[in-house]
Design a protein that fits this description.
185 residues, alpha+beta, NADH Oxidase
Length: 185
């Protein structure tokens, strides 16, 4: 494929090479990098610019308490999180839309959460930092550790660290024709 500009080439390369990491090295992500990821990621668009999120940086000793609330005794998931030195917890806050902006068929906040999460992982990848988005979480425990109010929903937890290797996996995606319709379903 031919690219129109250097920035397009860089962005496409970022999207093509970013992957969910489940094997982290013991190298710690600096607080400065975590703040930069969140500061840049927060620029993500949202419905009516409502920004219905609170992004919590979790590192240091507090980060060591998070993995037990990302794993399930019933299912062997997220055990890699024991080796992650930092997390970004994405909480959903109340979305305040512009006056008169309502749409009964859509609940925008959850879509906006997905958009900010995508921005966060791409910003991290641009810095050579790996991530994994986790939605299977034990919310009550995470809320207790981070003092999240009862009326705020913890939606996602992003593992943030450095991959043990630079080896990329082959991406498995549905083919274009299976997921794209042009002027019809």
């Amino acid at each position: 494929m031919e690219y129109n500009s250097e920035s397009e080439k860089m962005f496409r390369n970022l999207v093509e090479t970013r992957e969910s990491c489940r094997d982290y090295s013991d190298k710690v992500v600096s607080r400065e990098d975590l703040v930069d990821i969140v500061n840049t990621g927060r620029l993500a668009p949202s419905a009516c610019n409502s920004q219905p999120w609170k992004l919590i940086i979790v590192d240091g000793e507090t980060a060591k308490r998070v993995p037990e609330h990302l794993q399930s005794p019933a299912r062997p998931i997220n055990h890699f999180s024991n080796n992650v030195s930092s997390f970004i917890v994405v909480c959903e806050t109340r979305a305040v839309l512009m006056k008169g902006a309502t749409c009964d068929s859509q609940y925008y906040a959850q879509m906006d959460i997905g958009i900010v999460a995508a921005h966060l992982v791409l910003v991290a990848a641009s810095k050579g930092i790996s991530t994994c988005i986790m939605g299977a979480i034990q919310e009550t425990g995470i809320k207790q550790i981070l003092n999240v109010p009862d009326d705020v929903k913890v939606r996602l937890v992003l593992a943030v660290g450095y991959a043990r290797t630079d080896d990329l996996h082959t991406k498995s995606r549905k083919c274009f024709e299976e997921i794209v319709g042009i002027n019809k379903f």
